[in-house]
Design a protein that fits this description.
Number of strands: 6
Number of helices: 8
Largest sheet: 4 strands, antiparallel
Structural class: alpha+beta
Strand order of the largest sheet: 2-3-4-5
Strand content: 5-15%
Radius of gyration: 20 Å
Distance between the termini: 47 Å
Shape: globular
Length: 238
């Protein structure tokens, strides 16, 4: 994929940790549109699962490795204890940027004296990285008005519309729940609580159209962004 000098200037780092990538994308998206809700780490993981972007392990001399999404979730859930430790554990993965098909790869952890010792924290999503090209891919997907090569407009626009449609549906349902069950959406001080609002949405989900965004953290992040936008607007009016 070709990226422009302008896009490189937006995301100058060769790679960013997942949560930093979400922060950088949110900053750039909101610079383009102050009302944009940005993106959360969980949404980037969902985009990885959908095959829209790649998220990698940085394994030193082995370079960047793109794991199979199932294996990545297994490792993130700290399932190494269930792997046969008679050999070095393996995952299904490919080298980032390689045209080769995914294959079984040994996890390069441990030492010659203790080859089966693993730091489970190495395998969390928070320690995975998003390469520069994948940052630009995500930006193009999430910012449909961004200038990009004509031949890429059609597929990118379609995926961006899909994400936007899912968010719009969530907000419609959220407004309905807020209208029907306002007290369940507020905290102890009667202020809007994204967590309480999310819980109310999930509790009464059968009363509304099906949610297309299912991650509890993602729902809460979207609601928190909506509350923040409303709060900023009220302050500006005041």
């Amino acid at each position: 994929m070709n990226i422009t000098p302008e896009e490189k200037s937006l995301f100058p780092h060769s790679q960013l940790l997942l949560h930093r990538a979400a922060e950088a994308l949110t900053l750039r998206l909101q610079q383009q549109d102050p009302h944009h809700l940005g993106v959360t780490p969980r949404e980037l993981i969902d985009m990885f699962a959908a095959g829209s972007i790649s998220i990698c392990y940085d394994w030193g001399h082995m370079g960047l490795i793109v794991p199979d999404i199932y294996d990545a979730r297994m490792l993130d859930a700290k399932q190494l204890d269930h792997i046969n430790h008679t050999d070095i554990p393996t995952i299904y993965a490919r080298k980032y940027g390689s045209s080769e098909a995914p294959a079984t790869m040994k996890i390069p952890h441990g030492s010659p004296d203790s080859p089966h010792d693993f730091d489970l924290n190495d395998f969390g999503w928070e320690n995975m990285v998003v390469p520069q090209v994948e940052m630009v891919k995500a930006y193009r997907l999430l910012a449909p008005t961004h200038s990009r090569p004509l031949e890429e407009n059609k597929p990118v626009h379609g995926i961006a519309e899909h994400h936007a449609s899912n968010r719009e549906q969530l907000y419609k349902i959220a407004i309905g729940v807020l209208a029907d069950y306002p007290e369940e959406c507020r905290g102890t001080r009667k202020e809007f609580s994204p967590a309480k609002w999310r819980d109310a949405i999930l509790k009464h989900a059968k009363e509304y159209p099906p949610l297309m965004i299912m991650g509890v953290d993602t729902i809460e992040d979207h609601l928190a962004a909506a509350v923040n936008i409303k709060t900023r607007a009220n302050r500006q009016k005041g």
